[in-house]
Amino acid sequence: MKSTTKSTRWTAVAGLAVAAVFTLAACAPPGAEPEAAPTDTTAEGNLKVGFISPTTGNFAVAGQEMVDGWNLYWDINGNEVNGVTIETIVEDDAGNPETSLTKAHKLVEQDNVDVIVGPLIANTALAVAEYTASVGIPNLHPVAASDDLTQRNANDLTVRTGSMGGSQANYPGGQWAATEGDYKTAVTLCADYAFGWESCAGFKQGFESEGGEVVQQIWFPNTTTDFSTYVSQIQAADADLVYVATAGGAPGPNFLNAYLGLGLDMDNLLLNCCASDQGTLRTMGDQIEGLKSVSYWAEGRDSEVVTEFVDAYKEFSGGKVPGAYVAGGYITASLVASVLEESGLVTGEDLVSAITEYTFEDSIFGKVSWDDYNNTVGPVYIREVQKLDDGNLYNVPIATIEDVDQWLGKDPEDALAQPTYSQTFQG
Amino acid sequence: MNRRRVLNLSLLGALLLVALALPYIGATSFVISLTSTILIAGILASSVNFLAGQGGMVSLGHAGIAAASAYGVGWASRQGMDTGVQVLIALGVTLVVSFIYGLLSMRTTGIYFLMVTLAVGMLVYGLAFRLSSVTNGENGISGIARPEWMGTYWTFYYVVLASFVLVTAALWVMGRSPFGASLTGLRDSESRMRSLGYSVPAYKLGAFMISGLVAGFAGLLAVWHTGFVSPSSAGVDRSTHLIVMVILGGIGTLLGPLIGASVVVLVENVLSSYVDRWPTVLGLIFIFVILFARAGIAGSVGKWIARARRRADHRPPGGRGSPVSEAVSDSNHSEEMNRKDLP
Predict the structure, then answer these.
(1) Quick one: angle between helices A97-105 and B29-49, nearest 10?
(2) Which residues of A touch B272 (CB under 8 A)?
(3) In CATH, what number is assigned to the domain containing residue A255?
(4) Is residue A7 part of a domain?
(5) Are A109 and B232 an interchain contact pair (Cβ–Cβ within 8 Å)?
(6) How far apart are CA A282 and CA B207, in angstroms?
(7) A101–B5: do the CB atoms touch at under 8 Å?
(8) pLDDT digit string, tens, across residues B37-78
């Protein structure tokens, strides 16, 4: 009994103390609160870059490749351009948006970086872009493919530098299939989340704009390993063309194994960027020679800059051919270098406008420029897997569609007014 | 005993003072916002800790409740509703989701409870991922602004700090109430409580609603902190992190969740800048705690201090609470864990 009253008394005392402390806190606003000092502190001739990428966790391979591409450029060309030294701080976000945001805060508030590059995954990219815009720091995206990054969530400080939107990159694929490919009907198999919905929407709209007909759309969860049921559905759909979009990684090879294992014809296949990236080529080997895909990146393109990049990466990685993630990091670095070469040290909105007003004539993607929403406008390649002289498999372009923008033949206003793509809305 | 309580209370007071003074003593905005992250994670872990410590129900789905509340705010803000309505919607969503969780899990115990909460958590994740007209799919909802009066990073920090203190105090009081005692009874022996005439499922549902409410509140603070919500905040790895926080800190201790949250958040956000293999470090810390400090950091430190003091006092062996009897008697151990005044 005694101990009960005692504990009640203690509770009361503790409660009072807490209340008192809070009253005090409420009365006294902090005197000195240093608002995040922006970029003025940067020394002349020094561009500080914060690079956020998932180098651990589920997306570690892609994340590391993106960082490698960025570093590779500076390794080859030196990290000094036009008197400006590039200093990079790499931070790992493990593909987690909250961590990504914390890292962005750290880079901006503690390290005083001038620009943030990355991150990789769509939701992390959107979260970081929102924050960097609010503090006036430019944000360059080497890989993130989410349409909304340069559409509904577009802002003056966010630029997609090393990739295209999900629907943008696949729209020309649909057009090509319906015209030059001469396919009349198609069945699509896409990953069942935002990137897959966007890719499929791009393909479908392109295909149908040229008179093709998509007879069935099938969706698979990202975690699918056994694609045989989906392949049966594809067989049952009996269309001229099968379009497949994955987000990279295991689904590409898994699908191809199931598809080829049932003895189906590879000539009727059109894959997206990531289902037929270098990872898939290395896994599947010679049996997929002749496989066609559509992407903004073609490592087998006959061009001096591409050869230089591919050779350098092969040396760096012990013989591997670079995929789209490495290319995204590399082109972003070369773009920053070109802009600095032309305009000297620029930061903040000046850096963004210097990039978006720039036309990158001979990038590894080809001729790339930027639209009013800071998205890339550039070539899209229809590619075919070929074995080149060094014994490696490459995606070699067999057709090129120049100056592809993100509006799929619509007015920007109309495009922005539609709902985001989903299973049920494909444009 | 009394001396110990004074010590604990003054320790708590000192901690609170440091926390209050933090913005004044030159902590940068990054440090403050990281501390807010820790406190919010601490609140969420407290909600798991309440269920696990008090009721013996380990939930693997609490991230789902917090995310549901965050999505409530996000959706409302996308519709252009004002803050009051946003909070009401978050509350409503939290109550509904917690009720569903509770309803489905109230007749289960142990591993089955774990599986049911895991399943419902995955359901929330799946909805967030697939129901893109409401949740914007994998891209998540961004640009969710917190109320203007807590706009600056330090006012928000004080709001979070106050929330943490209030929630911790409320859960402490709840644990000491007759309701809390009944929950402890449920944890120790469900059949005994049933034969005494208690409605076991009703108590479990009630406990889940309380815990869910706290989790939802944490979700609201989290979305105000980051201005962003995406399916990954409902993911199973987030729920697992919460369990890790609770076990690291010490199940059933007052400040265990905060200590666990600090360790996890700091490893994830600060150590990862210096060590590439930070997930390994987190794993090693966890294994170390499981092997050598079963009662968690808060629990074990308290135990070690008590043991050291006993040794210093040269108490004769074999008395109550000596190392020998402690190793043998399990009930003694659970009583130790039960002592809520451990920091």
Answers:
(1) 150
(2) 56, 91-92, 94, 99
(3) 3.40.50.2300
(4) no
(5) no
(6) 54
(7) no
(8) 999 999 999 999 999 999 999 999 999 999 999 999 999 998
The string of DSSP codes covering A57-70 is: STTHHHHHHHHHHH
Q: What is the mean pLDDT of chain B?
A: 88
Q: Does A91 touch chain B (CB under 8 A)?
A: yes
Interface A-B: count of C-beta contacts within 8 A: 136
Q: Are residues A409 and A264 in the same domain?
A: yes
Q: Is A201 touching B (CB cutoff 8 A)?
A: no
| Residue B269 contacts A, CB cutoff 8 Å | yes
ipTM of the complex: 0.84
Tokens of B311: 């040794």
Residues of B numbered 118-147 whose beta carbons fall under 8 angstroms of chain A's beta carbons: which are they?
129-130, 132-133, 136-140, 142-143
Same structural domain for residues A263 and A187?
yes
Nearest Cα residue to A173 out of A306, A254, A274, A255: A274
Candidates B32, B40, B168, B228, partner chain A, best to mutate (most A CBs within 10 A): B228
Question: How far is residue A154's CA from residue B314's CA, in Å, rounded to a whole number?
Answer: 71
What number of CA atoms fall less than 13 Å from residue A279's CA on the CB side? 18
Q: Which of A27, A93, A105 to mutate to test the interface with B (most CBs of B within 10 A)?
A: A105
**Based on the domain organization, do A256 and A176 belong to the same domain?**
yes
Shared-domain flag, residues A192 and A325? no
- Given this model, what pLDDT does residue A223 score? 84
In sequence order, which ranges of B177-229 are alpha helices (DSSP H)? 178-188, 190-195, 200-226
**Residue A254 maps to a domain:** yes
- The answer to whether the Cβ–Cβ distance between A33 and B2 falls below 8 Å is no
- Residue range B4-8: average pLDDT? 81
The domain locations on chain B are: 2-338
Does the beta carbon of A58 lie under 8 angstroms from any beta carbon of chain B?
no
* Cβ–Cβ below 8 Å for A126 and B142: yes
Q: How many domains would you assign to chain A? A: 2
Please indicate, yes or no, whether residues A171 and A227 belong to a single structural domain of this protein: yes
CA–CA distance, A374 with B306 (Å, rounded to integer): 63
- With CA atoms as reference, the chain A residue closest to B267 would be A99
Domain that holds residue A101: 45-164+305-374
Q: How far apart are CA A208 and CA A214, in angstroms?
A: 7
pTM for the full predicted model: 0.85
Is some CB atom of chain B closer than 8 A to the CB atom of A148? yes
With cut-offs at 50, 70 and 90, classify the pLDDT of residue A93: very high
Least confident range of A283-292, B12-21, B110-119, B307-316 = B307-316
Domain B2-338: give its CATH code.
1.10.3470
Same-domain pairing of A242 and A280: yes
